[in-house]
Amino acid sequence: MTRILTGGLGRTDVARIVQQLGLDGIDVAESDDMGAAVELRSGRADCYLGTCHTGAGASLGVLVGVLGSDACHTFGRAVPQENQVAALLAAGVKVFGFAVDRIEAVTPVIVRAVAGAHGAPGLRAP
Asked: What superkingdom heads the lineage (predicted)?
């Protein structure tokens, strides 16, 4: 099971979208940044999706401080491609920040890449 934590201003919306994707092997939980840092560092979570107005500030500050900048990446207001996210995951990134006005577009891209990187079997039947 791959555990994704959501945090920041849009954490509830991000968690809802992750759940709606219906990907097998993906568990999602809302978190604060400190709790997420502890969970990620201990291996009890695999990925963190943080949102704020810019996608680069408050959504990642604590996580960069605790986990280091190599484990964190911000898309800001950009919408990434799944292969970009997959490359970041392969490089060890597990914390992603993005702007709250991009939640609907960015969340599915990141989650599908995470599911693929962690071997989640795919979509559940409706």
From this structure: Bacteria
